[in-house]
Design a protein that fits this description.
By secondary structure, the protein is of the alpha/beta class. It has helices at about 20-30, 45-55, 65-70, 85-95, 110-125, 140-150, 180-195, 290-305, 310-330, and strands spanning about 1-5, 5-15, 35-40, 60, 75-80, 100-105, 130, 155-165, 205-210, 220-230, 235-240, 240-255, 255-260, 270-275, 280-285, 335. Helix 4 (about 85-95) runs parallel beside helix 5 (about 110-125). The relative contact order is 0.17.
């Protein structure tokens, strides 16, 4: 670990250099004080060459050279931004080399893969965090406090819509890579319902829909789901890859409701509308660099030897729910979900605020899901 002004910094390799890694993750390191970008891993030589120059990164590796990167003594942690089906393999290999892992969500594609990742981290004494950036984001954490303090009375209903257009050919539309609406965007709705209700669902039901477009030949276009929580609480959501960009959730209690939009964004303003006894109060949250917050938090967990709150169990629970939802779609029946007891939940104490990245970086051989380069 390098030392700057007496402070240790965690040295990261970013593994996978797609759209989100380039647009959100790489620029974020400049905002952090305890994290630095020291290596890039990709199978695209152009990305490695141009991005290493852009960010002053000395060490670059192909996927075949991943073990060399892990054993190089140049890094302390990896940020894994690979396609979903590769998360388990690259996490386990890092853990086996005593390298800490910050892995993008979904944690993996199956519950068994998640368990393998948790075991590898535990066996090797390394930290494993799943990249739930909203667990550090001010608007969502204040929503948690509003619901938990029963300002809207007893929370009874959660409802969410998360939709966007995804261009044909995007990796999110491929079954073999762990694509599909639930893994990519439905997971945000599931996770939000869980952190707002501070509970785990016991039963789920879902239906999927497509209208026959070629781009949805491997995965569903849209999914609607119902999650039954204890004490008669219900969460519903719809997610789609074939509709206009919408991202919101609403929690309805016995005395009021809370509406957040855009609820799941990684950039830009977020608005919150709190209605109690018919009176509505609006608040706007300024943009923040959510990835800088994430790296800072994980690095602090490593340096302070603390368990990350969005740990492997948090990631496993969402994947277990997603698998149950797909089982429900296949059978047309509700599916029971065995529940974990969570002793950790996101709270406002985890809030980390950094100013947003001012300039949008030029993308190298990458495009957003909607096809914008």
């Amino acid at each position: 670990m390098t030392t700057t002004n007496g402070n240790r910094k965690i040295r990261y390799a970013v593994v996978g250099l797609g759209w989100f890694a380039q647009e959100a993750a790489l620029p974020a390191f400049a905002h952090t004080e305890n994290s630095e970008l020291v290596a890039l891993v990709s199978d695209d030589p152009t990305k490695l060459e141009e991005l290493s120059k852009q960010y002053g990164v000395e060490h670059t590796y192909s996927y075949e050279e991943y073990e060399d990167c892990l054993a190089s003594d140049e890094i302390d942690a990896v940020y894994i931004a690979l396609p979903n089906h590769l998360h388990c393999d690259f996490t386990v290999r890092a853990a086996n080399q005593a390298i800490h892992v910050l892995c993008e969500k979904p944690m993996a594609v199956t519950e068994q893969e998640c368990e393998s990742m948790i075991k590898a981290a535990n066996d090797n004494g390394v930290k494993l965090m799943i990249a739930y950036r909203l667990h550090l984001e001010p608007a969502n954490l204040e929503a948690v406090e509003i619901v938990r303090s029963q300002q809207i009375g007893e929370p009874r209903v959660f409802n969410s819509v998360f939709t966007q257009q995804v261009e044909q050919g995007n990796i999110r539309l491929r079954d073999i890579t762990g694509g599909g609406t639930l893994y990519d965007i439905g997971i945000y709705c599931i996770n939000a319902a869980r952190y707002l209700f501070q509970e785990e669902p016991s039963e789920v039901f879902a239906v999927a829909a497509s209208k026959g477009e070629q781009r949805f030949s491997e995965v569903e276009e849209a999914t609607s789901a119902i999650l039954r929580f204890p004490n008669g609480r219900l969460a519903t959501f719809t997610c789609s890859f074939g509709a206009a960009k919408v991202s919101n959730y609403q929690v309805v209690g016995t005395q009021g409701d809370l509406f957040v939009e855009p609820a799941y964004t990684w950039q830009g303003e977020i608005k919150k509308y709190l209605t109690i006894d018919g009176e509505t109060e609006e608040r706007t949250y300024a943009p923040h660099d959510q990835l800088a917050a994430e790296f800072t938090y994980f690095s602090d967990c490593i340096l302070s030897n603390k368990e990350p709150e969005p740990n492997g169990i948090e990631g496993l629970i969402d994947v277990r729910i997603i698998e149950a939802l797909y089982q429900s779609i296949a059978t047309g029946q509700p599916v029971q979900v065995p529940t974990f007891e969570r002793d950790q939940r996101p709270t406002s104490e985890q809030t980390i605020e950094y100013p947003p990245v001012e300039e949008k970086p030029d993308l190298i051989n990458a495009a957003s899901p909607a096809g914008n380069s």
